[in-house]
UniProtKB/TrEMBL annotation:
Pfam families: 2OG-FeII_Oxy_3, PKHD_C. One of its GO terms (molecular function) is iron ion binding. PROSITE patterns: FE2OG_OXY (PS51471). This is Fe2+-dependent dioxygenase. Binds 1 Fe(2+) ion per subunit. Residues 27-48 are annotated as: Disordered. It comes from the Bacteria. Its cofactor is L-ascorbate; Fe(2+). PANTHER family: PKHD-TYPE HYDROXYLASE YBIX. GO terms for biological process: DNA damage response; intracellular iron ion homeostasis. Fe cation binds at residues 96, 98, 159.
Amino acid sequence: MLAHIQGALDRQEVDVLREAMAQATWEDGASTAGANAGEAKRNEQLPPDSEISRALGKRLLSSLLANPAFVSTAVPLRIYPPLFNRYGVGDHFDPHVDNAIRGDAMTGARIRVDLAATVLLSDPDEYEGGELIVEDIYGSRRFKPPAGDLILYSAGSLHMVTPVTSGLRLASFLWLQSMIRADEARSLVCDLDESIQELAPRVGADDPDLRKLATVYHNLIRYWGDA
């Protein structure tokens, strides 16, 4: 699965997050790289267990869960607390695959990592380089979207952030366990939900065919949900 959700955060929310991040203390980003990716990663992050990281993560997550496109695409069951990073000149993250399991030291919660998401908090004209590249069945996809956009992709996909050559790239990143494990099934459910949302204003919520589609949608989640 690979999805680009435009405007997942509005500009006001982006500005609030950035203002708080500007006052924060940062640390080496290697602590969340995983055992196989530490040497390939060079950036900074807000300390994951710090008060500011947790507070900003809760705020960001509240906005994402209120976004119908995000919920429809991810079908989230559990979400690892969002983290925040920044890439300065020379920073990068070489090609890697995310760990399959993530544990939160503060709560003891563990999740199976089905999906990863990157929320950009800098606009493209604020930095050079720093593209997110994700490999999927169609080849390499490159992303450098406006601040507030979210890129959602399978955590098992090979992905990277190219070296930043000027400016500063700010972002949030998070991992999710979906109610539907299989990418193909999740994509079909998402497509069906989008069709329902498009049809509803035209035919009315009481349309019998629309109700049938909605029934199929909910039963597919019951059938494919294995979390």
